[in-house]
Design a protein that fits this description.
The chain is an alpha/beta fold. It has one domain (4-235): Rossmann fold. 36% of the residues lie in helices and 20% in strands. The protein has 10 helices and 9 strands. Helix 3 (67-75) links the parallel strand 3 and strand 4 (81-87). Helix 1 crosses helix 10. Keywords: Hydrolase.
């Protein structure tokens, strides 16, 4: 039985960011699901995804973009997950946060273009949402994407709670599950060396480097889909 492909979006995006890849995979006959990630906390997002996956009751391969890479790192320990694909993503180690992994490398263009907005948590305490400055979004986050599409993505982005940057991964699924990765060489959101370092440390089976921006799923959908389907073929 071919595994179901579950595509996991990252921060400042939603499930629609996977649209072009989803279309390719559906046209090739794969079973695909693209659940929401709420971007409230790494532990909460990973727990939601893990439960979502476990309820499918069939083999699953997880593909995570950007922050979604951190989410699949934790959620990927679900028993029915058979593989992980990191797409311009964070391959965290157990006990490591996004901030710690990024801290070892020069900042990308993203850091200078973030907006911090307070909001109230369910328990009444204060939280902070982080988003990308709308005017900077096309160049920093959606470079290479059709300008009109980038404008829509900019005003419909899903913020990431600031606590997610400092929260550490409770587990690292790549230690027990086979994994593959894509580096976006022209990434202005995550330093490509952050991606390379995480993938090398995790011992990924294959790493493909694409001359692509952070939203590689929008600009290179066929290539991204091929990495996923090649991983499925390798799993047998």
């Amino acid at each position: 039985m071919k595994p179901t492909i579950v595509l996991v979006h990252g921060a400042f995006a939603d499930a629609a960011s996977w649209g072009p890849v989803t279309r390719v995979l559906l046209d090739e006959g794969y079973d695909v699901l693209v659940p929401p990630v709420f971007n409230r906390s790494l532990s909460g997002d990973a727990e939601y995804l893990r439960r979502f996956v476990e309820q499918l009751d069939r083999p699953v391969i997880l593909a995570g973009h950007s922050y979604g890479g951190a989410v699949i790192t934790v959620a990927g320990v679900a028993e029915n997950v058979v593989g992980l694909v990191y797409v311009s993503g964070y391959a965290l180690d157990e006990g490591e946060s996004l901030g710690q992994l990024q801290g070892g490398f020069p900042d990308s263009d993203l850091a200078a273009n973030l907006v911090y907005t307070p909001y109230t948590l369910p328990d009444g305490t204060d939280g902070t949402d982080v988003s990308v400055q709308i005017d900077a979004f096309p160049a920093v986050f959606a470079a290479g994407v059709d300008p009109k599409t980038a404008e829509v993505l900019a005003v419909s982005q899903r913020p990431l709670s600031a606590i997610a940057f400092g929260e550490t991964a409770s587990v690292a699924a790549w230690k027990t599950k086979p994994a593959w990765g894509i580096v976006s060489v022209a990434d202005h959101t995550i330093n490509p060396d952050v991606e390379r370092f995480g993938y090398q440390r995790a011992g990924l089976r294959t790493v493909v480097e694409l001359d692509a921006p952070h939203l590689v799923m929008q600009t290179h959908p066929a290539e991204v889909a091929k990495v996923i389907t090649d991983a499925i073929a390798e799993l047998g």
